[in-house]
Amino acid sequence: MAKPHIIEVTNLVKRYQKAEKNSVDDVSFYVEEGSFFSLLGPNGAGKTTTISILTTLLAPTSGGASLSGFDVNSQPNQVRQQIGVIFQNPSLDRNLTAEENIRFHSNLYDLFPYRPTFSLMPETYKKKVKQLAEVVGLESDLFKPVKALSGGMKRKLEIIRSLMHQPQVLFLDEPTTGLDPISRQNLWRYLQEIRQTTDITIFLTTHYLEEAEGSDYLCIMNQGKIVSKGTPVEIKRSLTENYLVADAKDRTKLSKELTKLKVPFTGQGPFQVHFGKHSAPSIVQSLKTPLTQLEIHNPSLEDAYVEIIKGSEAEHHAQP
After folding, report:
1. 309: in domain
2. Same structural domain for residues 132 and 216?
3. pTM value?
4. What is the DSSP letter of 46?
């Protein structure tokens, strides 16, 4: 059964003053409640502008968007109550401790009355902070100054801060930029744990395509337009294919054998062997030439993404 749409974007257009073309050009899509949605595209594709409109930082030129039933243009205060945002660049006060950043954020959202120290805050506040800190592994660093925290710790702090008011949607704009591989992996483990416990909707933009592999649904933007949309499996299946990578000491013999079997292949060795009407097992079983390399190439989302962007660029340049 289809879930309700927590985000609706309809014919959205944004053109900046003195710009020659739209930054966001007639974009429409939706995001289901509780899903993991990714918006992908190269620099300048319109992703950040789209997120800025959805998070009420920019007003659209035309078209519309709603979040949790609230119009992002005419009801910005209600929308802000429904969202948490982790920007590409940390937006923390470096002169405060981690907990003080959380406390001021909670006060801005009118979640708890402000008190000058953590010990004077209500028990419900202290319990919530400690619970979230435990989930993301920041409990031992809560009272350290932000300037003493590593990049990974700052990201964890931003997660805690953005979840204090129990948002319906968490926007992640390039959340792992500048993080080392282990910190990136840990961050995503924490986000998945949070998804399982809160049923929050995650809206991601990233240049690390492997981070979007687990999306329920994604859209790819280029030149301000949506150029592809679907599940990762659908997008990969529509543009790329599996193939064998095969090699042998006697490449001439292997090449002749593949030709005789009428199996399509490319390259001079190693060979990319395309299945055509055959299956991988039948091709392997038919080969008599001793092989030095044999592997199945499964296309990644990045492979499909590159093909989509190349195709949309070619189509754009071909237009009069």
Report:
1. no
2. yes
3. 0.80
4. S
